[in-house]
Specification:
With 319 residues, the protein is of the alpha/beta class. It is 39% helix and 20% strand. The structure holds zinc ion. Residues 160, 170, 172, 174, 177 line the site of zinc ion (ZN).
């Protein structure tokens, strides 16, 4: 039956990943392409092309878009996308017109969180907080088995909670945001600084990155930690420390049963999660006198966003 399949598209600042997804969250066909700059018409064209190609192989009933930006609570308009040119972009209707299929638009982190709840690491958990660790921190909240978007659609942007007054400057214009201390960019920043300073570890990172300081990324630090490098392991533990402190704050506000940690930095696994749990337990208000939320790694990897977007589109399109 055609209603069983939907296309999910994850639109990031540099890459567009798309797939045909079935009712069990399996990705049956994939396409990946570069995001064509910031021109909104070009991005819409690319979305249309990707859908056309995937529909050539499978009969689909709907299209779900996960976009890196603020999406209004009705799922029709991208209010603001920091890495794309969308400002109040009525993307849902534009995609529906271009493809002739019912469409939904969702924040990419919300789509990932939904996928983890439906098919991934936290199936059946009623109250879930997703923390996605990439260059920054993204997030999604599931309350009572429903995605929580907030009154204006921008809930879950907790990467920009201030954790250090007058702390490190953030792209958002504020200082001391959580993501400046607990995301992949911390490892990138420290790695490049170590390379600039010519430390032994900095030189190893520089070698791993092919000799250019600006090619050092957090993933090089994670890889070094996985090979047992003590300095890298310590840096990841520092990130875990900040992560647990921030999560304890989120637990005070939301009281989830489980936190699920996704994004590139979650590749560090227990090297990250063990210190996160320790800091969380240490920082939690009422610790020792209340049940503690579990902290687990995400289960679906980088395709979670497109899987969740497809699933949301399929359920919205079904009567
Ligand atoms: Zn910020």
């Amino acid at each position: 039956m055609s209603g069983a399949l939907a296309i999910g598209i994850d639109i990031g600042g540099t890459k567009i990943a798309a797939g045909v997804v079935d009712e069990q969250g399996r990705v049956l066909a994939r396409r990946r392409t570069d995001t064509p700059g910031t021109d909104t018409a070009a991005v819409l064209d690319t979305i249309g092309d990707v859908v056309d190609r995937l529909r050539g192989e499978h009969e689909v009933s709907a299209v779900g878009i996960g976009a890196a930006g603020f999406v209004d609570a009705s799922g029709s308009t991208v209010l603001f996308a920091p890495h794309l040119a969308w400002r109040n972009e009525p993307l849902r209707d534009a995609v529906a017109r271009r493809t002739g299929l019912p469409a939904v638009v969702e924040n990419d982190a919300n789509a990932s969180g939904w996928a983890e709840w439906r098919f991934g690491a936290v199936q059946g958990e009623p109250d879930v907080v997703l923390v996605t660790l990439g260059t920054g921190i993204g997030g999604a909240i599931v309350i009572d088995g429903e995605p929580y978007r907030g009154r204006f659609g921008v809930a879950g942007e907790y990467g920009h909670m201030q954790v250090v007054p007058d702390g490190l400057p953030c792209d958002c214009g504020n200082q001391g945001c959580w993501e400046q201390y607990a995301s992949g960019r911390v490892l990138t920043r420290r790695g490049r600084a170590a390379a600039d300073a010519g430390t032994a570890f900095g030189r190893r990172l520089l070698d791993a990155a092919g000799g250019s300081v600006l090619d050092i990324h957090g993933s090089h630090v994670t890889a070094a930690a996985q090979q047992g490098d003590e300095e890298a392991t310590g840096w990841i533990a520092d990130v875990g420390d900040w992560l647990g402190v921030g999560m304890a704050g989120l637990a005070s506000a939301l009281d989830p049963g489980v936190f699920v940690v996704g994004g590139g930095l979650s590749d560090a696994g227990e090297l990250l999660l063990a210190p996160t749990r320790a800091a969380f337990s240490r920082s939690l208000s009422g610790r020792g006198h209340r049940p503690e939320a579990r902290i687990v790694a995400a289960g679906l990897g980088p395709e979670a966003g497109l899987i969740g977007a497809a699933d949301m589109a399929r359920s919205a399109a079904q009567p």
